[in-house]
Amino acid sequence: MAGSKEIKRRIVSVKNTRQITKAMKMVSAAKLRRAQEAVQSARPYANKLREVIANLAARTSEDAHPMLANPKEVKKVLFYVFTSDRGLCGSFNSALIRAAKLAIQQKRSEGITVDVIAIGKKGRDAFRRDQGFQKAFIDITGRLNYDDVQTIAGELSESFMSGTYDEVHSVYNKFVTVLTQVPTAVRVLPIEATPNDGSDEEALGYLYEPSEEQLLAELLPKNVEVQVNAMLLNSMASEQASRMTAMDSATNNASEMLRKLSLKYNRARQAAITTELSEIIAGAGAL
Q: Residue 119 is inside which H or E element, if any?
């Protein structure tokens, strides 16, 4: 029965694991609902603000604000990589890090110096040995508050406006559906203006008061905060969706393993009983 005892221990272990993965799935599902609502609430505002600023920028010259200034030559770029602080979330981090490394390598192949700032412990661990790694923001993805957003956005803006970097990019997981999260690389600064074809101003759809320059001075720093907030919210929703899916798969796999182990245990037990009966019958025959 030694084999049966070992199988029974494995069954108990798998049952305990299944309880944990099932609980994690339920927790992630609850967090996902809140995160999904936050993404859906913030997305229209972020998109409209980006549209307004792009139209404003199209009416002004690049020297109207430092955040609009396109460098004559791109020599140094900063990448913000949005990952998670925790694991057990499927391919959420691995796919994102792979996309980030690909984007970074593309820039470096063009002779551009690239530095990296990681958001989350997984990003820190992936890039800490990279020659361009600068720092990491950790322990914020599970409890996002606007102070963290302002801190990240402030440093991001200052790194560009000070002239330290010619461009600032970000790589994050865009939340599409529970089953689909897309690693997305975007240029945050300088801000791209909507091309102006020289048509009437009202063709752009907006009339502004006060001047465009004054509005840009107020809106551009706020826009960076809003975009960073949107990227963090997308990343958090994607993380919970990926974790929920991964834990659901793990729970199903544990159930299937239990089914196979139970079958194996019953066969081993039946074989042991058959052997004992054979020995008893053989002993009785000898007597």
A: strand 113-119
